[in-house]
Protein: Outer membrane protein beta-barrel domain-containing protein
Amino acid sequence: MNATEDSLGNQLNLQYNVYWYGFIKKDQIKTYVSYTFINDRSALSSNTPYAINMGIQWKYGQWVIDTDFAYTRNMPNFQDNAIYKSVPVKVMYNGQKFKPYIKYIYDQIDRIGDINDEGLMENTNTHTVQLALQYYPIPNKNLRFHIVGSYSSDGNFINLNPSHGDENYYNKMMLMAGVRVGFDILKGW
Structure:
């Protein structure tokens, strides 16, 4: 459970989170479900904001398949009176040092009422494909180098009303590279 505070330090909009992690078959089929909702006391949304996420991960030898489903309605940073759905599917080779993967993501936005600015939602369906190569130079350590190429069927999610302060532009094609260093406080490096 968490909350935001106003400028006077008063607690607003308690956010409740429930998570469940489990497995169907140990070390082969993992599952998770999460549910989040906000007690919207400041009337940010027309309805109660909430999000549901579900996922299953299958392991077959060196191969890992991740499937997920996200359903979000009226959450902060999402359009009011709209439902956002996302279905990513990732297939990865889980090698010792190299872990390449391909990922397909389908995103959809459904309108459920009047939207204040129709220009906010030009594209309501997007298909994205990612190809990635991850390199772990030290086995069993959380140090990773990665490069990801991404192509999307639609590139423009533009807020045509800059008064909202959240105007964005996303390219159809992107190339990203990075380094990740992880540290577990309980286990150490």
